[in-house]
Write a structure and sequence with these properties.
The chain has 12 helices and 17 strands. With about 525 residues, the chain is α+β, with helices and mostly antiparallel strands. Strand 1, helix 2 and strand 2 form a beta-alpha-beta unit.
């Protein structure tokens, strides 16, 4: 009866199809399926978990050959068979069908899982218990929905050209940052969450301050002295004397490209000097926009009382963790006020920032969000996240802006997302004080939208940005559930006289693993 109805409606019904060789049953023109369903697969009789894993592995490979790029594969399994946390109770891994790992072998990720409700499917009957015409228990059964994963990409070395000191120069981008340069997340037409947060902050602050946005492009490279002991966190780039253009070239303004070499560790510079290699100029990928803020204050066009705003990506080596990022979008606010009024200016600035973030969070979730301004002197170094720790090394911080979200893991539930500083006296006259505020837009976006891993903000998978319409923030819905994870140990010895640099080691691990670690 069901087959008759399907045929009557124009469907093509086929029997005795081998699920492990699907392409053999369909002409090339008919191999583009949007959805493939396999309800309660089983090898038959008393086949164990190993044989059923093999069946699923062959099925997923076969499905990959006839599924559209954005198609779905639905697999219904009895309670416990899948081996995921969605199964209640959950079987031990070795005693399950390990469906997520098996599907991954064919390039699929588990994107959704929900209860299988046979009663909602008209005329459906579950039979086949031990290859007999008997029903089997489907109480607690789950429907697993798989989509294609994006392939692991390996990026070629990249040369970036910029204008610096009135000359066109080029430098090699550190390999770990190749896929993160010039992504354009802060462009006007961007629907990325960091741009939405930036626009909201600008709109609210413009109601309280005369606001001037710095639109000109800030150089990716910074030349000069960096305060503090943060050298191991910097992506260093050096220019050796033999690569320096001649006086005639500089006078003629020719745009000969100069190749900079990337230096992984700061000590390499010291070693080059010890070997007699003279380093004429030392550059780094900008770790902060604060030096540019100080330059704005010194410019002739700077107007006291106006709030200057500029933003862009900054680059820092850091330890590997879900909330520590080697590149993020920083937003900096600069304002000069009369001495004695800086605290009221700070309070007003922070209040507007808090109102903006609260407003964005309420549109996303009704859960509790607490934002506080805390004095830096009340924090121990061990209490600071990577962002705050680096900021403290860069220059003295008066206040930290912290966000606390109830739903986060307790270890990351309270995060520093911003800093407040006042300028040293040499930048201003005796009657004026400069207030600098810095925000980590990426971290704010993660906390508001409950994005569990900073890598999602930079993914090339279009399923991420499709969740965020232009100008809107939403709770992030993970499209890769329960990914298998593997723990390995590595042991090595450090030669006598050499100090182990943990940040450098993590940077190497991040690069060679294409950020899968």
């Amino acid at each position: 009866e069901s087959c008759f109805l399907l045929t009557f409606e124009g469907a093509e019904v086929m029997f005795s199809v081998d699920c492990t060789k699907l392409k053999d049953y369909f002409l090339p023109a008919k191999r583009e399926f949007d959805c493939i369903y396999f309800n309660f697969p089983h090898c038959g009789r008393k086949a164990g978990v190993v044989k059923n894993r093999e069946l699923l592995a062959h099925f997923f490979h076969s499905s990959a050959e006839v599924l559209t790029e954005e198609g779905e594969v639905h697999v219904a399994l009895c309670n416990g068979q899948g081996g995921t946390p969605a199964d209640q109770p959950r079987r031990e891994w070795h005693n399950s069908w390990q469906i997520v790992a098996v599907a991954a072998g064919a390039g699929f990720i588990l994107s959704n899982v929900h209860p299988f409700k046979a009663e909602t499917i008209h005329g459906y009957k579950c039979t086949g218990y031990r290859s007999q015409d008997k029903s089997f228990c489907i109480e607690g059964a789950l429907n697993h929905i798989f989509t294609r994963s994006t392939p692991l990409l390996y990026f070629k070395p990249m040369i970036c050209e910029i204008e610096l000191e009135s000359r066109r120069i080029s430098f090699q981008v550190p390999q770990v940052l190749v896929d993160k340069i010039n992504r354009g997340f802060l462009e006007l037409n961007s629907n990325h969450p960091v741009q939405t947060i930036k626009e909201k902050l600008m709109a609210v602050l413009s109601q309280a301050f005369p606001l001037q946005s710095i639109d000109y492009c800030l150089s990716l490279l910074f030349q000069g002295h960096l305060n503090g002991n943060c050298h191991s966190n910097i992506f260093w780039i050096i220019l050796s004397p033999e690569e320096t253009p001649s006086t005639e070239e500089m006078a003629s303004g020719r745009t000969n490209a100069i190749l900079f070499s990337h230096v992984d560790f700061y000590r390499d510079i010291d070693e080059n000097v010890q070997k007699g290699c003279q380093i004429s100029k030392q550059y780094c990928l900008r770790p902060s926009l604060l030096p540019y803020a100080q330059a704005v204050v010194k410019s002739a066009a700077f107007v006291p009382g106006t709030l200057y705003v500029f933003s862009g990506p900054v680059f820092r080596k850091c330890l590997i963790s879900p909330y520590s990022m080697p590149v993020f979008h920083e937003m900096v606010f600069v304002c000069t006020v009369n001495r004695g009024t800086e605290n009221s200016c700070i309070r007003m600035l922070v209040d507007k920032i808090k109102n903006s973030i609260h407003s964005l969070h309420q549109t996303v979730s009704g859960l509790k969000l607490n934002i506080s301004l805390q004095e830096a002197m009340n924090f121990e170094t061990s209490e600071l996240n990577d962002f705050a720790a680096f900021e403290s090394q860069l220059s003295k911080v008066q206040y930290f802006l912290c966000m606390e979200v109830d739903t986060l893991d307790s270890s990351e539930k309270c995060s520093c997302v911003g800093t407040i500083r006042t300028a040293p006296f040499e930048l201003t006259s005796s009657d004026l004080v400069v207030v600098f505020a810095s925000l980590n837009l990426d971290l704010i976006a993660m906390l508001i939208c409950r994005i569990y891993d900073w890598r999602m903000l930079w993914t090339l998978d279009t399923r991420f940005l499709r969740q965020f319409p232009r100008g809107e923030l939403r709770l992030f819905k993970n499209f890769s559930l329960y990914p298998p994870s593997y723990v390995h140990d590595v042991s090595f010895w450090v030669p006598d006289g050499q100090q182990f640099d943990e940040v450098a080691f993590h940077t190497v691990a991040r690069q060679v693993s294409s950020e899968t670690v």
